[in-house]
Amino acid sequence: MNLQKLSRLDLNLLVSLQALLEEKSVTRAAHRLFITQPAMSRVLQRLRHQLDDPLFTRTGNELVPTPKARDLQMRLPRLLENILEMVSEGEFDPAAYVGEITIAVPEFVAISLVSELTKVVTQYAPGVILSISSETDSVERELADGVLDFAIDIEKGITEDISARNLAIFTPSIWMREGHPLAKKSRVTLDEILEFPFVQYYLLISKRVSARTDARFDKVLRDLGRKRKKALVTNQLLTAMETVCDTDCLMVAAKYGLTMERGMDRIVRKRYPAELPHEGTISLVLLQHKRTSGSPIHRWLADKIVGLMQAWDKDLAADSARL
Fold first, then answer.
1. Nearest CA among 80, 81, 47, 79 for reference residue 63
2. How far apart are CA 181 and CA 179, in angstroms?
3. CB within 10 Å: which end of the chain, N or C, has fewer?
4. Spatial strand order in the sheet of 282-289
């Protein structure tokens, strides 16, 4: 760490920069920090010299951030928040936090988790805004870049900069509509289910889906020298469910806990065929970059997510036993 270079940086300049980025006006930023407009103009000049960038251009009465300023706008709030937490006394109070937390969540998890998480946040941390998405180009890159605070994803190899906390394990079952030719059978065989087309619901967080991408189920079948016919590949859960309900298509999925009840009355679930190994079991993890590991609000929210998901996991285990 270059302490000599850091010693030349006045941290008050960063506070002023944050005010300028939020207000996009020298006058409003000065008013917010209780200084005069000429004083704020001098601060802006110092910032431009210190950071070797114009930082803003003027369009009408508004300051427009340069690319470097936009980059700082993404990283600066957390830096200032960490400094504030470091010098503040007493225990962290989530009710005092104001800010946005971004989470990438697969739809099959979000449809049950997010409403429960929102209840907790609105009660105990009303200043937090949850931004939820099920699409991303790269979970690891967006966690590293600060675009995402958390991601819930299927367990897989990750970099050493990202931590993973276990959330839940899903046991697969075969979904079909009421009235399906196999619906009244107590157990289904591999030969029987492979006579019907499948909906492949895309569990991974991704912007794109492709029929060329094999699920774990496909890999297990390939090891047995078998293959299924895919009629639809989608990452839209309700689309997948409606297709199963309206056709003879089957889908490999799990029973969802908490509030995932919409459409379930039209779906029949069967145990995984006995000929298949239980390789379809899905482990979900909560991913978080190490840069937020020391943040109290991130620790608090991570604990809430884990608590909700572990309660869900118990419901899943009980429900699987009844299948």
1. 47
2. 6
3. N
4. 128-133, 99-104, 150-154, 282-289, 162-170
- Report the chain's C-alpha Rg in angstroms: 25
Residue limits of CATH 3.40.190.10 in the chain: 96-166+283-309, 172-280
Fold of the domain built from segment(s) 96-166+283-309: D-Maltodextrin-Binding Protein; domain 2 (3.40.190)
Q: How far is CA 167 from CA 155, 211, 308, in A?
A: 10, 28, 9
pLDDT, tens digit (0-9, with 9 covering 90-100), for 24-75: 999 999 888 888 888 889 999 999 988 899 999 988 888 999 999 999 888 8
Amino acid at 53: D
Fold for domain 3-87? Arc Repressor Mutant, subunit A (1.10.10)
Quickly name the fold that domain 172-280 has.
Answer: D-Maltodextrin-Binding Protein; domain 2 (3.40.190)
**For the stretch 173-203, what's the b/e string if a residue is b when 16 or more beta carbons lie within 10 angstroms of its beta carbon?**
bbbbbeebebeeeeebeeebbbebebbbbbb
Structure tokens at 152: 């819930």
As a whole number of angstroms, the distance between CA 313 and CA 317 comes to 6
pTM: 0.63
